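Encode chain A's predicted structure.
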Amino acid sequence: MRVGVLAVMALAAVAAAQTCPCSFAPTGSEPRVVLNTLGTGGNPSTCSVRTLPTGGCFCVVDEGNAGECEINSEAVQYEFIGGGPQCVAVSNPIAVCPAGVEARTTRCEIDTNVAWTLDCVIPASEFPDDVTITDIQLRISQTDNFTFTGTGPVNNAVSLSYQTINQILPINAFPDWEDTPIKSTSGNIPASGTITYSAGSTAPFRTLNALPAGIAFANSNLGSLGVVFRFTTQLGQQSSGFTETEFFPIFSRVVVDMTASFE
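Encoded structure for chain A:
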């Protein structure tokens, strides 16, 4: 009898361990590899690509203040072998949203000269009464384009480096929003006495989940303002060898998808 009890306890412990840190994504669609024929008798499975609806909970790795979701042990994902159509099952965990978890999402974007400020808001009217924010996720894309003009003595050695400095307010609400990659150049002032340099930079796509301070800040404003966070940029640059310098224009385009989960 004791062995039976221990066995049941062990099975319960295994079942309880089948969870993962998770977050919530807004509804959308994207191409997915799906099974066509299941391989048998040593023959490989075959798959194709279809556009399927996405959204809901998904497992994350080190994503800040993520929630906890059960894993769907019966769901299977596939990936191509080489270019396909042969494919194999992969062991990526698939999250199941906890009962009662809902979410609201919004898209905020700006494309103007640095420095700028963008307030991203999910209004209070979007949320039911007496709910609590449990997670906030940001999905951020950013592209910079700028033109620099510098003057100085002919043949003078010059150098320039530039990036956009990013910040989310309040501080400590999210992990750091990384600055754009540094763009650098060097050379000599031509006979005209003026050098012009134009460049663009695309930052890596970022997914950030709110830290405990960000969750607390959102809940403190939820009944009046809703979920509100501020995004700012400013110019970061260093130059040498020039007599006069001018950055214009300096465009930084940012798109933020903000999703707030609540229960």
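Residues 1-15 have pLDDT under 50 and may be disordered.
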